[in-house]
Each structure stands twice: as structure tokens, then as C-alpha cells.
Write a structure and sequence with these properties.
CATH architecture: 3-Layer(aba) Sandwich
Strand order of the largest sheet: 4-3-2-1-5
Order of helices and strands: HEHEHHEHHEHE
CATH class: Alpha Beta
Number of strands: 5
CATH superfamily: DsrEFH-like
Strand content: 15-25%
Length: about 140
């Protein structure tokens, strides 16, 4: 007799295929540091977005903090992560307005055509993305 606490293989497979995962990827690393770590972080952020997209799951990418400087770098055809960025740029939700103002990425962010995000009206800023909103909408927030 099968225990009531256990599920059959069919039930497990069926449940797994019905679960839709959502990820919000937040890029914070600073390209101006010139470090392998910064490049590794943005590359892994983009690779994670690619993985979600390839599996047909929902993913969104936001650039915040010093990470707002990546937009200009990733659009350069000779950048090592450019090709991967091109694969996932349709998942880019945008760039933090307040962070782009502070870290000098505003002009490139605006020229890129990506949204400038201001939904978290933090006092004395031009606004930042709301991570609370993303969590409330069921996103797992992954920071790089």
C-alpha cells in the first residue's frame, strides 16, 4: 500500500511542469572596477537570464547601483559579453533612474532606449526600482 504522503512519478512530473518560475535579475557590479569579478558577475547574470528564457520561464533584468554603467559597455560589439547581452536584452526591464543619476549612467541608459525605472520613490532621489513589487509579484530576486 502506498503511503498518503508520497506522490507517484506521474504526479511529480505533472506538478513540476505546471510550476512557472519567475526570476528578477539585478545587476549591481561596477564595470569601471575593471575586475574579472565584475565581468564574471554580469556574464553570469546574463547567462542566468538566458537559462530562464531557454526554458520558457519568465525573467526580467534590472541594472541598479554602479551596475547602471553596464548598459553602455554591453552594447559595444567588441565586449566579451555583448553577444550574450544581445540574446537577452528583450528581458531588460530597465535601469534605475536614481542609481544612473548617482553613478553617471543616465545618458547611456536613455540613449539605449531601455526604460528608466522610478517606481520606488525614495526621498531625495529621482526614483529607483521597487524590489518589493517584484517579490509581491512572485519573482525570485537574484543579485549579481
Amino acid at each position: 500500500m502506498e503511503s498518503a504522503c508520497c506522490t507517484t512519478e506521474h504526479e511529480t512530473t505533472q506538478t513540476a511542469t505546471q510550476v512557472r518560475r519567475k526570476a528578477a535579475i539585478v545587476v549591481l557590479s561596477d564595470p569601471q572596477s575593471g575586475s574579472d569579478e565584475a565581468l564574471g558577475r554580469v556574464f553570469n547574470a546574463l547567462a542566468t537570464a538566458y537559462d530562464y528564457k531557454a526554458r520558457g520561464e519568465e525573467v526580467t533584468i534590472q541594472f541598479q547601483g554602479a551596475g547602471t554603467r553596464w548598459i553602455g559597455e554591453l552594447q559595444k560589439a567588441d565586449h566579451p559579453a555583448h553577444a550574450l547581452f544581445e540574446e537577452v536584452k528583450d528581458a531588460v526591464a530597465g535601469v534605475s533612474c536614481g542609481c544612473a543619476d548617482v553613478f553617471g549612467g543616465r545618458e547611456e541608459a536613455e540613449q539605449s532606449g531601455f526604460d528608466i525605472i522610478t517606481d520606488n520613490r525614495v526621498p531625495n532621489t529621482s526614483g529607483l526600482p521597487s524590489l518589493h513589487r517584484l517579490v509581491s509579484e512572485g519573482y525570485a530576486v537574484l543579485t549579481f
